[in-house]
Amino acid sequence: MHLKPFALSALHSATTGGRRYHMYMGTLTLIMLIGAYAYSLQLRYGLAVTGMNDHVSWGLYISNFTFLVGLAAAAMMLVLPAYVLKDVDFSRAVLMAEAVAVAALVMCLSFVVVDIGNPIAAWHLIPGIGYLNWPRSLLAWDILVLNGYLAINLAIPFYILYSRFSGRQPDKRKYIPWMYIAVMWAVSIHLVTAFLLAGLPARPFWNTALLGPRFLASAFTAGPAFVILLLSLIRKETKYEISDGAFSKLALITTAAAQVNLVMLISELFYKFYSPTHHGINARYLFFGIEGHNALVPWIWSAIAVNAIATIALMIHPIRRNPRWLVIASAALFIGIWVEKGIGLVVPGFIPSPLGEIVEYTPSLVEIAVTAGVWALGLFVLTILVRVALPIELGESRSPYIDGATSAPLVRPRSTRGLTRDVRPVRTR
Amino acid sequence: MSAEKVTGTPATAEDNTRLGQRVDRRRALQILIGGIAAGTQAATACSPVSAMTDEEREVKQLAWREYIKGNYRFMTEAERAETIARLERVAELKRGVDVTIQSTGAQPGVEFGYAFNISKCKGFRSCVEACINENNLDRNAATQYIRIFEMDDGVVDLDEADASFQHEAPAEGHFYMGTQCFQCADPPCVKVCPVGATWQEPDGITVVDYDWCIGCRYCMAACPYWARRFNWSEPEVPVAEVNTNQHYLGNRARKAGVVEKCTFCIHRTRQGRLPACAEACPTGARVFGNLLDPNSEIRWVLANKKVFRLKEDLKTEPRFWYFTD
Ligand code: SF4
Ligand code: SF4
Questions:
Q1: Residue B271 Cα, gap to closest chain A Cα (Å)
Q2: Of chain B residues 253-312, which have a CB less than 8 A from chain A?
Q3: Hey, is the C-beta of A58 within 8 angstroms of any chain B C-beta?
Q4: What is residue B15's predicted lDDT score, i.e. its pLDDT?
Q5: pLDDT tens-digit map of A173-226
């Protein structure tokens, strides 16, 4: 067994780095500590310390949750081209995408935990000793699919990395079927989360058949956009080789999804505003404000503007192919979708209330601190996962109990054609 | 136990076996956690700094037992009696109030219904006040189950209505319409609860087990009538004002982080009394009764008045009707 050296070497990879690395991790830790303090206040005084109220009973936490479910799902959907179509360019993005999925899921589950009012009663959710209202409650479904997805996304990379670490070639028959399952599962976590909202006739803003597809489109935009950012960083900072082909394909996926996302937004706007009915009142609040209540209006319009500009920019080939512009456009899309899905989806569902009352929502400092803390936790987890995976993938980290042999990379890069920078081959020991 | 319609008392043989298993598992958990608790207590007892009084120790013990208890719906009669005894004792130890908590079940042949006379309501909000006192509602957050909407004559549109009017009522050119939990026959709030902490009783009252609710607030998002309230912080009721006539599923003490709602005053109506709001209304705008009793006033209203319900298109089948004279 190589478990102990694996753990030790993982610990070593995660904790060694330059000054910048330590400062970065230190900053994340500081933000997490502040978040933890804010959460302790929330535990002591109740959710009253947040900006939520009986009218807007879900706020920043659930908004971030829905956005991050998308990120978790989309990251894994990138696996499809890599493994199903045997696309070589993608293979290196895959482990990173799975790391993103795991980090996003950790954040999702944390957001759910910080949102519940009576967290010590969480054991009531455990079937057997508690009671899980499955299959009637969509929330019960969500809990199941999210945890299952997390398990799969931990197991596959662990298996691959551990095999490599122990000097064995990972057995395709053992993990490829699970990859297929994971891809389907990714769609399911996102649809179930959309259905969680879409299944409530009480909230016409969410109660639309387009909600699920819109979720998927925005996830397919924000997910690859984030992976582009992550891979650019890895390419700049490490020896890990990522081909230009991977970037151009990710950029294409992002662009196409961003276009679909805009088309769906337009259909939604048409449906809500061409012949306005009662069902459009929440949308009216979101896009134009009602009687001076317009807290969300600047947010949604800037989000739409950012999304539209970034989408159009990506449709122009020279811009999309320029690494610097690609990074800028991806970052813009990521933030734009975060605002659109985060602030523009959950909160307006509650304003006005089903009885027509308008009570606005502003997150409190405590809420913002907890949210920042959870994001810091996610980045922390992501960084560690990447730091552990890279040396193993590069063949730098191997179990001391095997004799010198290193295994081949998962899929060997077909060529490094088109690389403008100096090409560093995969190092073998 | 999940797919079928969830009712107050498990009846079928299958239910009973599952109930048995559930109880067994909980026993095991209780023994395990009880052991841990005993260990911690032994440790604190030995330490010289422990200055716990007997009462504090008892409160802690009771809190442990309360924490590991099950969902009210799945409790045996003995378990129900135990938890009620504990809760009464906690109220005495912690607040010095002597409460009586009932566990009266739904009476056979009873299904409650409510009707609201729009032409009689004058917007005095005596019902709101009575509800607050009767149900031990949080004074600190000013929780209210009942909303009275003021509308312009000629416009039945809640979007245009005002529920927070401050001027004296009735105001010229307006009429008034009250809302509260409508005790839907097909309640969306019940369907969505992930832990089954809220359910519909056989007499039509949708209740919440405050000790089982995890506070996810999904039911609040699902209710089309905005009838559920959340305890954003520890609810406060002055000791002198506590209504000591309580029901486990009704107006007993709540805690921070859980959902609550109108229960048609379950502690009164299951004993044949009127809900506090209906009793308090000075104009007689509120009619309450047993829908299954052909001689009840509510049946008379439904048969002889033009009645309507809110949001019929949602098919939640509220047991709450509006009518005019
Ligand atoms: S009015 Fe709302 S809280 Fe009451 S039963 Fe219907 S859905 Fe549930
Ligand atoms: S808040 Fe409580 S009663 Fe409502 S759905 Fe969540 S657990 Fe159930």
A1: 31
A2: 255-258
A3: yes
A4: 44
A5: 888 888 888 888 998 999 999 999 999 999 999 999 899 899 889 988 999 999
pLDDT at B252 over 50: yes
Please give the structure tokens belonging to residue A306.
């950012």
B69 phi, psi to nearest 5 deg: -75, 170
Percent of chain A with pLDDT strictly greater than 90: 62
Alpha-helical regions (H) of chain B: 13-46, 54-67, 77-95, 126-134, 188-192, 218-222, 266-269, 276-280, 297-304
Q: What's the CA gap between B247 and B249, in Å, rounded?
A: 5
Residue A31 near residue A379, CB atoms below 8 Å: no
For residue B284, count other CB atoms closer than 10 A to its CB.
Answer: 10
Could you give the CA distance from residue B204 to residue B200 in angstroms, rounded to a whole number?
A: 6
Pocket of ligand 2 (CB under 6 A): B 192-193, 195, 197-198, 208, 213-219, 259
Cα-to-centroid distance, A406 and ligand 2 (Å): 53
CB B76 within 8 A of CB B41: no
Q: What is the per-residue pLDDT across A62-115, written as a single tens digit (0 to 9) for each?
A: 999 999 999 998 877 777 766 666 666 676 777 888 899 999 999 999 999 999
DSSP string, A254-288: HHHHHHHHHHHHHHHHHHHHSS--GGGHHHHHHHH
Cα torsion at B106, B107, B110, B111 (round to 10°)?
0
Residue of the nearest CA to atom 2 in ligand 1? Answer: B223
Distance B310 CA to ligand 1 centre (A): 12
Q: Which residues of A4-26 are buried (b: 16+ CB within 10 A; e: fewer)?
A: ebbeebbeebbeeeeeeeeeebe
Mean per-residue pLDDT, B121-147: 96
Where does the pLDDT of residue A280 fall: very low under 50, low under 70, confident under 90, or very high at 90 and above? Answer: confident
Residue A144: count other Cβ atoms within 10 Å of its Cβ: 17
A203 contact B CB<8A: yes
Mean pLDDT for chain B?
88
Residues 368-407 of A with CB under 8 A from B: none
Question: Under a CB-based contact definition with an 8 Å cutoff, are residues A155 and A163 in contact?
Answer: no
d(CA B289, CA B298): 5
- Return the residue matching tokens 């809990």: A143
Strands (E), B119-258: 147-152, 174-179, 198-200, 206-208, 228-230, 245-247
* Distance of alpha carbon B76 from alpha carbon A93, whole angstroms: 56
The answer to whether B242 and B97 have CB atoms below 8 angstroms apart is: yes
Report the percent of chain A where pLDDT is more than 70: 91
Q: Best residue in A56, A113, A118 to probe B by mutation, most B CBs within 10 Å?
A: A118
φ/ψ of residue A50, rounded to 5: -90, 175
Rounded to a whole number of angstroms, the distance from the CA of A16 to the nearest CA of chain B is 40
Name which residue sits closest to atom 5 of ligand 1, judged by CA: B183
In A166-210, alpha helices (H): 172-198
Q: Within an 8 Å CB–CB cutoff, is residue B69 touching chain A? A: no
- The better pLDDT of the pair B7, A190 is held by A190
Of the candidates A135, A199, A281, the beta carbon closest to that of B159 is on A281
Query: What distance in Å separates the CA atoms of residue A295 and residue A288, rounded to the nearest whole number?
Result: 10
Give residue for tokens 């498990």.
B10
Q: How far is the CA of A372 from the centre of ligand 2 (A)?
A: 26
Cα nearest neighbour of A131 on chain B: B195
Ligand closest to the CA atom of residue B262: 1
Q: Which of B193, B228, B315, B321 to mutate to test the pocket of ligand 1 (most atoms within 8 A of CB)?
A: B228
User: For the ranges A12-26, A125-139, B25-39, which has the lowest average pLDDT?
Assistant: B25-39
Per-residue pLDDT reduced to its tens digit, A126-180: 998 999 999 999 999 999 999 999 999 999 889 989 998 998 888 888 888 888 8
Say if B193 is an interface residue toward chain A (CB within 8 Å). yes
